[in-house]
Fold each of these.
Amino acid sequence: MSDFDLVLSGTVVLPTTIIENGYVAVRDGKIVHVGEGVAPSAHERHELGKALIVPRAIDAQTHSLSQKDREDFIWSTRSAAAGGVTTIVDMPYDEGNLVCSAEAVRIKVAHASPQARVDFALYGTIKPEEGASRILEQVEAGVAAFKFSTFGTDPIRFPRIPPALLEECFAAIAPTGLTAGVHNEDDEAVRAAMAKVKALGITDYRGHGLSRPPLTELLASLQIYETGAQTGCPAHVVHCSLGRGYEIARSYRDRGFDATIECCIHYLTLDEEHDVARLGGKAKINPPIRSRAEVEKLWEHVRAGNVTLVSTDHVSWSENRKTNPDMLANASGVPGLEVMVPLFVKGALER
């Protein structure tokens, strides 16, 4: 009788090599052997030919509870499992429970645990009026990292953290060794651009990109990395739509700073001139989807090793919040948990 419960044969993708005629052997739910050539016997075997056998993925940016009574962890984690993602890291901006204290962390863990079909970790954040006072208690409660925003989407659920307070939070986090992740859009610059778009009466798909031009994103990224450099805190830009942003992150790393950067799968697949024009509000994301030329720049940064990680920034809004003919009136964000891994592999193979 076989010693293995399951054996998969096919093209095995490992961190440093690809085994064309390989196999993966599983016992008690764990991979215990990877080999090449004739596969061993097992209780269950699958010959997958040229299909890729890849490691499971971690999605480091998801929003399971942004709209109350809509998605929840049962659905986000099922979608994750369907897409080959076995761990999600959920953001703290939940409708009805901003994760900004140890108690809020415990509430979310208790809520999510019975539902979750894959592993999950949690980001923490702060209330601006409380400053950094609850940072350490959230570390003790088990958060994996912290999330802030240089742009105020909502004064309660998704508040702007001004520069002095951001520095205070980074300084409090630095001794813990955790990372400070930040939504990278300059509040003042975005609001000025939005006012200009509204004054011009632009309501179609073009309005969103015009309301958040490249400089609004790059100014915020520079603030984030320089704050990390000054405080000694690992600084992470949680989504970057521009090739220039990856150059900035690389320049800080080359000087010895802990400066990481994340690319969402939608920035590697969708473009403004085709997809946003076609989808309208359903493709409204902050920062915006950029041009096809910018998409290809991002792939070059993937190739060059300048992209720290790829995520989804997954969020599932009700359709009525994504179909307003006035582009700027729609909620921001898209789902993506089921498609991140296949779309990334497809894009990489094509290039």
Amino acid sequence: MRLSDCHNIDDFRRLAKQRLPWPVFDYIDGAADDELTKARNTAAFGQCDLVPDVLAGVDTIDTSITVLGRKSALPLILSPTALQRVFHWQGERAVARAAEKFGLWFGISSLATISIEDVGAMVSTPKMFQFYYHKDRGLNRSMIERCQAARFDAIALTVDTIVSGKRERCARSGFTSPPRFTPSSALSYAIKPRWALDYLFREKFSLPNLDTHVSAGTGEAVSIAGYFNSMLDQSLDWKMAQQLREDWGGTFCLKGVMSVADARRAVEIGADAIMISNHGGRQLDGSRAPFDQLREIVDAVGGRIEIICDGGVRRGSHVLKALSAGATAASGGRLYLYALAAAGQPGVERAIALLKDEIERGMKLMGVTRVDQLSPERLRWR
């Protein structure tokens, strides 16, 4: 299978599986427990249908939106994800350059494999930093100050990782950050020599936004579950989130909000946006899908805070359904991670181009020329 054979996100998934050692692929692809929530994240979009208008004069359309204070050419955000240079040696640089080419928001994780400063200097497109709240207060201060100096456009505090979900695929494979070569995993890496050579001989793996304060996960191999459970602050509460917003002083988002009550609290503390998200199904298995929760959160706080529907997006039609249900934008991680793992920057660019084409075609077939014409009247629920 080649990059030119990829015509949708699932095709990129198959190519990524073909090219990655299985512990690395399972880290991207896997989720918590029985992976029910991960499957539901995408399946939820199938519970409603789009209702198109015709004869609408759609020769010229505008797919752009303004979200988090910056313009985006598409109503789609490339969500921040960790450890990207494990999946392909180009890592976050490939995603950043692809996002800039298409004029999109993208984010990097606290567990990014390139530095805040590198990203800030590399691209001019809108940049989000996904903030994990650590027990080490000095590390928390350092990340805020570095984002301020690098002129990041928003911080998204991740609020659904107080403890790690039980990621059984990772437990079986022994996946760690950085990857650890053990007798049981050696063969899986050896039979993917291109990946192994890139990992061993290209830029040395590190987590440069953390390694000034911690060694776990950067110089010292640790499971992601072990990292979350030992390094992140389980006392994180609304008061601490509000203080982080004040310390940051810029556009502030909460990532991982799923309930109406929490959406209302986000408004109360002055957050600019929420990402309705269950961490790609990687935390609480059996929880609701973001799209399932979207309508009731829009009914409760729509118009008072921006609402980003995060997770499960695999098609342009999913984006259109999220917007019709009241979301400001849609976002996702695996939708570009599979493509990154499959082919680096060309893969990410092809994935975005396919989604862009699907969004544009879908809008024309829906009979809309602007994103703000997508409304609940365009949906029928089964």
